[in-house]
Specification:
Chain lengths: 488, 483
Amino acid sequence: MRELVGRPYHELRPRLGKDFSVAELVEAYLQTLEALEPHVRAYLTVTAEEARQQARALDQRLAAGESLPPLAGMPVALKDNLCTRGVRTTCGSKILESFVPPYDATAVRRLQEAGAVVLGKTNLDEFAMGSSTENSGFFPTRNPWDLDCVPGGSSGGSAAAVAAGEALAALGSDTGGSIRQPASLCGVVGLKPTYGRVSRYGLVAFASSLDQIGPFALDVHDCALVLQAISGHDPQDSTSVDLPVPDFVAALEGGVRGVRVGLPTEFFGEGLQPEVRQAVLDAVRVLEGLGAQVEEVRLPTLEYALPTYYLIACAEASSNLARYDGVAYGYRSPRARDLYTLYSRTRAEGFGPEVKRRIMLGTFALSAGYYEGFYKKAQQVRTLVRRDFDRCFHEVDVLATPTSPVAGFRLGERTADPLQMYLADVYTIPVNLAGLPGISVPCGFAGGLPVGLQLVGRPFDEATLLRVAYAYQQATDWHRRRCPLQMG
Amino acid sequence: MEYETVIGLEIHVQLLTQSKMFCGCSTRFGAPPNTQTCPVCLGLPGSLPVINRRAVELGLRAALVLNCTVQPTSQFHRKNYYYPDLPKNYQISQYQYLEHPPLGTDGHLDVEVDGVRRRVGIRRVHLEEDTGKLVHPEDGTVSWVDYNRSGVPLMEIVTYPDLRSPQEARAFLLKLRQVLQYAEVSTGRMEEGTLRCDANVSLRRPGEPLGIRTEVKNMNSLRSVERALSYEVARQREVLERGGAVVQETRHWDERRGVTFASRSKEEAEDYRYFPEPDLVPVEVTSEWLEEIRRTLPELPDARRDRLMAQYDLSRYDAELLIQTRATADFFEAAVAAHPSPKAIANWILGDLSAYLNEHNLEIDQLRTTPSQLAELVRLVEDGTISGRTAKEVLVEMLQTGEGPRSIVDRRGLVQIADEKALRETVDAVIRDHPEPVKDVQAGKEKAIAFLVGQVMRRTQGRANPALVQRLLRERLGLPTGS
């Protein structure tokens, strides 16, 4: 049944219950997981028994002649910052190593209601802060295409799991590129929905005004299926938007004839790896060949996006992470003597260096005397970035850019220099600042590592993004490549 | 040398909502620890707040009755500080930012003390969430946290430093409580903690800029507000008169010793690092919504006083007393609806009933006796079934047991004796047994007749109709019986 692994769900679905059972599909993935996990280390927690039980229950429903929900039997992985009732949710941090939430995140609940079978919780940079998954408080995850390279981050575990055939699809979270960048580095599809499209309830907050949950999948069609399941207003998240959710699968067809694709000049400048640049421009040429109109646009605020992002994200994080204090749950320092040392030692011992760096940065940016010059100024620049995009979307329907300036990097290569690490997200961060939807799809290779094409759309216009990405995949086969590790 | 007292108040009011500010948990008081909690009010990872629309509505009501400008868009902020009763280590609150205003700003409330009317400015009205409660067992080395109160909706009302005496501060709180009760915003009971008050106090020479202020905390009743502020004013005056300087600090009121004392915690300006709460969208108050709230505002105290005077022909004095609390006015009107005798019912409420409430430290809405029971009591007096004197006893029993007046009167056989034949025997016996007073009466000392009436009442355990007794005595003693 190993032949089932690595095929997109929309291809398997018609054969489900005929050629194979849900249990067989899930077992095939669990076997791959078991075989490859020692190399990849994508998972922090594997819930194999629960998955098998769920698979058997779905098979019984099949046998009883029930029609199954849209994602029935899809073996999925969840980034470990999504709350799962009864299953520990660590956020990749020692401070939450033993935290077991009493509730499911809305997106998780919706995914399970759609029939997906959860295989486990995936590794991430601690509290989603990082671009390589090396900041995990437990261990780094490796890129299945090259085990000496990072899978990207912060949703590196989810991206690597899908790339390695250890899950058919996965959920991640994207605050500054944490879905799209690892999707690019691992050669899978990753989508960050518009801010407000998917409920954040149960996503452990990093930066509330930027975080969004989204899918990883083998191709755009599967990506649309998962997005469909998790989208929509949630009364428990005031920032989720009460807008109708279109039929994303139906929206795939239609092609790109007449679609205006913008190439923002600033995204093709200094620091971009030449092979990546070539792969992305080749992809744009494919779209042009399919009838899209390609034109250059300008996004001059790009150079301010990175500092703006780090001020806002860190400010919010400094407040969001204040609750990890050893009082009611999570790690508590055994060396705490009084209230002050309960706080200081718990947090000193529980958090890793990158998290501490960002908490300090954010605390500083919000402090009296600095608020105006840093946090408030950053909010003003954020408005300018948003306007830049608005202006572009008067001229074009989608933007096409590289997802990451480089195809990948080796473990340890950037850990010594935080700024080098931050630059990994330079093309994805502006999209979060503007709250826009973005998708990364595989579009080639550079030095044996996958390259991703980023498409960015108008707010709540995921449908157009998916349509353009789908047309691209219909004309190319980069998304059909599987890593050598998976091929055995 | 004269000093002018300057007082500003910061008041926290618990809103009358069924559920908490940002989640669906109950706000009921007194449940076992940590039984009214959920991921949101426990601040668990991943949980998100959702604004309680009812709490905003009550906040808007308060803003309206305090004559505030209601902001069409207001924003919640995070107030960041570490404390174990604060599960997220930030409190969702509102803050006075120009671009992110609180719910209501720049209102006023008028108070009157000794005939002097003063307009007290309201700086702002804003909403926030309450914290949990720390419990420190006497013997232990541990502390417990009860999060039942965490997330309970609070409204903060901040006045300008417009109050000029502790008496005015007390009068302001009374008036504030009254309008908040009328608007059904809060029960406003300091004793139960649904209204809490801190005060900023300073002295200055008339005409000079504001002096250095102290913040007085831990005042748990209206009386303690007045006492604490009087103490603090006297203390500051003494400091100034000695040529010293008032230190800007927080001082706690010690109710038992009757003094304020500086808190030991070191005074450093805390930086709360306020910033707009990214988990919540701004509160949009449309003019339609505000109109709807304005239209459905309950009748306020001044309007009700005027209506009571007009509708029931009450004196201004009585009407003013009846509207002191909304519950009293409601009780009065419900009783009058059951028996249309407003003057008598007002007298009972303001007399015996109020005395009972004061004596037992109760509020009228905590009574088991209903308005219709009081109405029935008044009717029993008016139709001669019982005497006024008996009624007073019956009322006390009603208030103590909750039993109805008719049932008490019947069970205890208190029906007034209006039967002439039965009374005549008692009257004759009294005349026979008290020859001296009888002589006095017959000698023209008519006042002595009261003694004889009293004797008859005594022998009938107060059940005789006093007017009838009087007439029978006069007949027997050959005096004119009047009209």
